[in-house]
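Re: Re: token formats

Sure, here are both.
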Amino acid sequence: MIRDPETLNVLLDSIRRFVNERLIPNEELVADSDEIPEDIVQDMRTLGLFGLTIPERFGGLELTMEEEVLAMFELCRASPVFRSLIGTTVGIGSQGILFDGTQAQQEKYLPRLATGELLASFALTEPEAGSDAASLRTTAIRDGDGYVVNGTKRFITNAPQAGMFTLMARTDPGVKAAGGVSAFIVDADTPGISFGKRDKKMGQKGAHTCDVIFDNVRVPADNLIGGKEGKGFKTAMKVLEKGRIHIAAVCVAVAERMLDMALRYAAERKQFGQPIANFQLVQAMLADSKAEIYAARCMVLDAARRRDDKLPVGTEASCAKMFASEMCGRVADRAVQIFGGAGYMAEYGIERFYRDVRLFRIYEGTTQIQQTVIAKNMLREL
């Protein structure tokens, strides 16, 4: 399954050291400043993190799905904000070009994405289109040798820093369903693009989102992904299916970090003359968290291996994302409970994770959307 275990182990060891020496010590700084220091960003470029999933012929590392999952298990022991910076390039920002883009599109954009020179962003969500992605209203109307784009995208991750957008827009307003949606590559400096102010969020300080407004933006016809209209929704769904396995791996890693924090605190904190880890009700919370993390890890690895084997993974990806994200929320809640009053205080760090992980149950398909996908797939198979 793993193409080269020795090379993979070197990569994983490098990520592990980077997390321990550079990322974890800077978590509080990033949370307080709402910025990831540029020297850390450059280190992430040097380590090759922006090119994890991009083919070697374009300068990336071309990890398999299983290898990508293992990399996330290491990287996401640190605050998830660091993963968020590379996430839209590694995943939903670049994979549409890789899956369905023309050779010319791949050669133009993927090498720059792999080095981190160009940061990709995925522009799908709108004020009136989130879970119901097929109802998006942004239009891209053919005009001569290009398209004119109008509309607003909302909650777009990394938009303030993006060099390009993978944009979903409706090329056929007469087709209200998914068939009228097409995918485009749009350079961020194209005239007519403007940005809303950075969103103030519950958590993940340092990961920036904002509205992206397209006002008569001219996009060359050559930037229509794959050169065919009406294929954008299918591209988005392929990208999101892979992304759900990725996010599930992120959830596992962050949950492991929170459990480690809770375990260490429980072993040190004394009440009634002994460590609170000796009390069975605390042990129950620790044990439940360990078991659920183990279950989620197994699900994620199984889904990743199935995808590498070219098997259908729509159901498995949704199962993994749903279970892992819900599990992560439960682990966060138990961790705060184990910390007690200290868990509510910023100086201990666990309350930041509690806020950060709440997003996992929402983006890349809410828990409720995953339930719907799973059930529909079951009925279709029946």
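Second one below.
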Amino acid sequence: MTALRSILLFALAAVAEIGGAWLVWQGVREHRGWVWIGAGVIALGFYGFVATLQPDADFGRILAAYGGVFVAGSLAWGMVLDGYRPDRWDITGASICLLGVAVIMYAPRMS
């Protein structure tokens, strides 16, 4: 149950951070305005809060592992919302990142 909770929190964090960055991007680069930018800033703040809810108490471990989730999530976000089509190297790299997440977060540890 702890691993499932952790995975769900990583997914929620990814939506908040990647979504927030995308909203800021849309506001600035696509000239959609301050409302989009403001919504992005709020989402990015929410991401920071969600990260604190992880069951593991080690900040460095959580943020390091989340980096892999961010890589894979960013490619997925681009596919769904921007029509980006990753090539085999994008997919290979994202898979390696997710393997790293699994090792960092869920490998058995000696106490």
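The mean pLDDT is 95. The chain is about 80% helix and 0% strand.
- S.
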